[in-house]
Write a structure and sequence with these properties.
The protein is an alpha/beta fold. It has 2 domains: 9-248, 3-Layer(aba) Sandwich (Rossmann fold); 259-307, no CATH class. It has helices at residues 18-29, 51-62, 77-91, 114-142, 153-156, 163-183, 217-227, 266-271, 273-276, 288-301, and strands at 9-12, 33-37, 67-70, 96-99, 145-150, 188-195, 237-241, 244-248. Helix 1 (18-29) crosses helix 7 (217-227), helix 3 runs parallel beside helix 4 and helix 4 (114-142) packs parallel to helix 6 (163-183). It is globular and about 70 Å long. The chain starts with 8 loop residues before the first strand and ends in a 7-residue tail after the last helix. The relative contact order is 0.12. The chain binds 1,4-dihydronicotinamide adenine dinucleotide (NAI). Residues 13-14, 16-20, 37-41, 43, 45, 52, 73-75, 100-103, 123, 127, 150, 152, 195-197, 199-202 line the site of 1,4-dihydronicotinamide adenine dinucleotide.
């Protein structure tokens, strides 16, 4: 088994600190040329400085790797284009995009100013869209691409005060699920992580004692594998951190047909909630078309389709 990178170029967004810094350093140590993107603001995404990205570039170059800084915000079309242009101008292309940049503006939904909702969507979802959009045609043309989305258990499973953040993070899964349909045949693979690490973003809710166990590098090991030449996975969601790695999947139960071809009453729906919610035969689907095909098959089996 090996994890290798054949003369690859990576863009890592939000690589000035935390997880992004670790991803950039781990890839660079394996010979990947890296664009270290970061606008250098605070955790809310406000302010800006070239220092964060510059320091990471210096750490990579000092260790014998190749890296260049970019200070654009991911949250604009021009920013996304310029980040990818930095890779093309300096390293001749882009093979790997790690959509990692992120900000937080936590508040209960009742108290949340909606500007703080859109600010989160703009960075996490649209930032990933803008950067991926700029790199995607090159990856399709080269028949090689690795994209990693940084989701979160806050989006996959929910978290108090995170309506904005959770919405953005689960949206990335929808973005990935559609992208994999378009990229897989051209070896452009897209996967998502839901990381757990002690960074400036999580230091308020986690004890510093956890620092050795919660190093971002635990997450970067998974990211490096997902971006490697050998990886042939696409559409995976992986919860990772602290040495724990686990696939997360959206599944659908076997379901039940109600009404025998007629619209069932709400009472019939209510009475059948047990069967509707039975997950004992739950399975996943590779694309949306398979869901409707499976329903048609069930209708055929139960003789409902022939009545239409
Ligand atoms: P961090 O705050 O250390 O790193 C985020 C980086 O993104 C910062 O350097 C920041 O300047 C940069 N950034 C923010 N807005 C940007 C923009 N518009 N354009 C370019 N760069 C921008 O936090 P951390 O923990 O390293 O977060 C990295 C990613 O992982 C984020 O997407 C976060 O939501 C996600 N995540 C982190 C978890 C954790 O346990 N640390 C848990 C789940 C998700």
């Amino acid at each position: 088994m090996s994890v290798s990178f054949d003369n690859r170029v990576a863009v890592v967004t939000g690589a000035g600190s935390g997880l992004g810094r670790a991803h950039a350093q781990v890839l660079a140590a394996r010979g990947v040329k890296v664009v270290v993107n970061d606008l250098g603001g605070n955790t809310a995404g406000e302010g800006g400085s070239t220092r964060a990205a510059d320091d990471v570039v210096k750490s990579i170059v000092d260790a014998g790797g190749e890296a260049v800084a970019n200070y654009d915000s991911v949250a604009s079309l021009e920013g996304g284009q310029n980040i990818v242009k930095t890779a093309i101008d300096n390293f001749g292309g882009v093979d790997i995009v790690i959509n990692n940049a992120g900000n937080v503006r936590d508040k209960s939904f009742a108290k949340m100013d909606l500007d703080n909702f859109t600010a989160i969507m703009d960075v996490h979802l649209m930032g990933a869209v803008y950067v991926t959009k700029a790199a995607w045609p090159l990856m399709l043309e080269n028949k090689f691409g690795r994209v990693v989305m940084t989701s979160s258990s806050a989006g996959l499973f929910g978290s108090h005060g995170h309506t904005n953040y959770g919405s953005a993070k689960i949206s990335l899964i929808g973005f990935m699920n559609a992208l994999i349909q378009e990229g897989s045949k051209k070896n452009v693979l897209v996967n998502s992580i839901a990381p757990m690490a002690l960074t400036r973003m999580t230091e308020e809710v986690m004890s510093p004692k956890l620092a050795p166990m919660m190093q971002p590098e635990f997450v970067s090991a998974m990211v490096a594998f997902l971006c490697s030449d050998e990886c042939d996975l696409s559409g995976q969601i992986v919860e990772c951190g602290m040495g724990y790695y686990s696939k997360v999947q959206i599944v659908e139960g076997a379901g039940v047909l109600l009404g025998g071809g007629e619209v069932p009453s709400p009472e019939e729906v209510q009475a059948n909630w047990g069967a509707i919610s039975d997950m004992s035969e739950a399975k996943t689907y590779r694309h949306a078309g398979q869901v409707i095909r499976s329903v048609f098959n069930k209708m055929k089996e139960e003789g409902v389709l022939s009545k239409q």
